[in-house]
Design goal:
globular, single chain, 4-stranded mixed sheet, 7-stranded mixed sheet, binds 5-S-methyl-1-O-phosphono-5-thio-D-ribulose, 16 strands, alpha/beta
């Protein structure tokens, strides 16, 4: 992949966030300039920016946008603003853990600075000549932390790609769901990073991208970014993947994650569970690729993961056309949970985690070499 020629999924311009509007792909590559909180929340809600790690990197930068927009007159007012934004931005999508995690990390790191923790100053009253300086310092700290989150994610993606390639060394035809690529992260992706690494090493790889109804992240986004990188990609209707797997036409499945519980149960785009069940039945590897920032040990198991319910309109319509009868209702859960028992391995930036996940996840997060972290075969 010629990374120099690639338009970044998100980029800090100095006073705004430039993102690719993913609702417009693959028809056109349109960039959005986000410079207020309402636009940031709107971009998240309508999936102009999406994918758990990209949401984290974006949400953190949106705090700086929010500070610049509000121009608080004192540190107390800035603290109040950030507490409001913690929820207004951080809770916009409930399943992807990285969004609220990154918002919390950025606010907490910035406010923890010793020179800011004890200061209570008011610019307008002129009671403290250091007020404006403290606000500048707060902005600088927010921006540094937000940029660090993006940089760390890019690094994690590269490591996941390296390990994913090792794990999938024997696999050529590999299925994936939704989009867990460069459009979903601040780097080269998670699940798709393995494909980029295989292609870069000159290994054969043929990707089967499940459409991922209703918003078609697989058909629109995965197919777009892989084709753009010259990787062989075929779009497969969601309902066709199980029979392809059962028929022996797929070597392995790899997907991303929106939240991984402490026991390894994994929430990802709705439809993922069906591929996992088919893979288990056929005896092929089913892999989750995610940075450790997507692990949420506060959630013990998948039944405690909050599943985002989206508008029925997304099911009723496609391409501006109503597909369903006017009297029909629709349900639209955006994610499902794949139980840990169906997951062959979780490929993270801290190693390749194997069952029992309760132990391997805890070890990985503690910084220890996880059990079974040597890359295995599919
Ligand atoms: O609703 P989306 O498009 O944000 O859902 C995204 C996914 O389900 C991805 O697989 C997940 O966030 C991992 S992205 C590296």
């Amino acid at each position: 992949m010629d990374t120099a020629a690639i338009t970044p999924t998100l980029r800090w311009t100095g006073d705004s966030i430039e993102i690719i509007d993913q609702t417009r792909l693959p028809a056109e590559l349109v960039l959005l300039d986000v410079r207020d909180v309402a636009s940031a929340v709107d971009a998240i809600e309508r999936l102009a920016i999406r994918g758990a790690p990209a949401l984290g990197a974006f949400g953190a930068l949106a705090l700086v946008v929010g500070l610049d927009e509000a121009q608080p007159g004192s540190l107390d007012a800035a603290r109040e603003l950030l507490e409001r934004l913690r929820h207004e931005i951080g809770d916009t999508r409930p399943t992807a853990v990285n969004l609220r995690w990154a918002v919390d990390r950025t606010i907490d790191a910035a406010l923890a600075a010793p020179e800011l923790t004890n200061a209570s100053t008011n610019v307008d009253s002129g009671s403290n000549s250091g007020s404006a300086g403290s606000l500048d310092e707060l902005r600088r700290r927010l921006l540094d932390e937000a940029l660090a989150i993006g940089a760390e994610d890019a690094k994690a993606c590269a490591e996941i790609g390296r390990l994913g390639r090792e794990v999938l060394a024997e696999a050529t035809v590999i299925a994936t769901h939704c989009n867990a690529g460069r459009l979903a992260t601040a780097g080269i992706g998670t699940a798709l990073a393995a494909f980029y690494a295989k292609a870069a090493a000159g290994e054969p790889v043929r990707v089967l991208a499940a459409e991922s109804r209703p918003l078609l992240q697989g058909a629109r986004l995965t197919a777009w970014e892989l084709a753009d990188a010259g990787i062989d990609v075929s779009v497969v209707p969601d309902g066709a993947m199980a029979s392809l797997i059962a028929g022996g036409e797929v070597d392995a499945v790899i997907v991303g994650a929106d939240r991984i519980a402490a026991n390894g149960d994994t929430a990802n785009k709705v439809g993922t569970l069906a591929h996992a069940l088919a893979a288990a039945d056929a005896g092929i590897g089913f892999y989750v690729a995610a940075p450790t920032t997507t692990v949420d040990t506060a959630v013990p198991s998948g039944d405690r993961i909050v599943i985002e319910q989206r508008s029925p309109d997304e099911v009723h319509h496609a391409g501006g056309q109503r597909l369903t009868p006017e009297d029909a209702k629709a349900v639209n859960p955006a994610f499902d949970v794949t139980p840990a028992r169906l997951i062959t391995a979780i490929i993270t930036d801290a190693g390749v985690l194997r069952p029992p996940y309760g132990e391997s996840i805890a070890q990985a997060l503690a910084g220890a070499e996880p059990a079974g972290s040597g890359a295995g075969r599919c």
